[in-house]
Write a structure and sequence with these properties.
Order of helices and strands: HEHEHEEHEHHEHEHEHH
Distance between the termini: 23 Å
Helix content: 40-55%
Radius of gyration: 17 Å
Length: 234
């Protein structure tokens, strides 16, 4: 599974609870993005997840589910990302909910398709921060959490989540320097080619979510921008 994400530089994140017409979805899936991630912090249900997966499956792009709601886990994805919110205010969001899921459904979990991701939530006003009680962090604290994820827990992904807010790219850069084996995902405020280039220069993989719904044409430009940056770095 780690090999699957090793080459991913750009991911579009689609929310089952938000509207995207067929023309827009086709543009996203045929954009050249490396993968489609389906997930959201609220309003995610089994029914709207099934519906969105079925629509995406008309295309050949890899499709992964970021599991945020146990009742909305749907079979048929290429990969299931299991968030562990490392700076959550309650351990429930680090390992508690995952343990309950294993207790209840362990006999039917496709372990070979699961991949944990160490979430570090850096926008205290985001829905995910309010939901998990994530605490605000200084740069040194974020780096420490990233090293715990990378070197102690050996998580394959460290995800810096600014959730719609443009992040501190110097902090992102410093976090990436601390990682030895984990891939650094960055999400937050990427809305056009310029912001995509800046984020791609300091992270391994960028996630474009809100931009799809706010200005699709500019969001589509992020794919080419990211691949241009990564090509120049080779």
């Amino acid at each position: 599974m780690k090999q699957m994400i090793a080459s991913w530089q750009h991911i579009f994140k689609l929310d089952p609870d938000r509207d995207l017409d067929d023309q827009g979805l086709e543009a996203v899936c045929l954009s050249g993005t490396d993968a489609i991630m389906i997930g959201g912090s609220s309003g995610v249900t089994y029914d709207n997840t099934v519906e969105l997966l079925a629509r995406v499956r008309r295309f050949e792009v890899p499709c992964v589910l970021e599991v945020s709601e146990l009742a909305a886990v749907v079979p048929g994805f290429d990969l299931y990302l299991i968030p562990m919110v490392l700076n959550a205010g309650h351990p429930d969001w680090i390992v508690g909910q995952q343990a309950r899921a294993v207790e209840r459904y362990g006999y039917m979990i496709p372990w070979e398709q699961l991949m944990p991701e160490g979430y570090i939530v850096l926008n205290p006003d985001a829905t995910v921060a309010r939901l998990t009680g994530a605490t605000a962090l200084e740069s040194s604290e974020a780096q420490a959490y990233a090293q715990v994820a990378d070197r102690l827990l050996h998580l394959p992904i460290v995800y810096l989540e600014y959730s719609g807010q443009w992040g501190d790219l110097e902090l992102v850069k410093e976090v990436r320097r601390t990682l030895e084996q984990a891939r650094l995902f960055y999400g937050g405020g990427i809305v056009d080619s310029q912001t995509a280039r800046l984020a791609a220069a300091v992270a391994d993989t960028i996630i474009v979510g809100n931009g799809v719904y706010n200005d699709l044409e500019r969001a589509l430009e992020t794919v080419t921008a990211v691949h241009e940056v990564k090509t120049l770095r080779l």
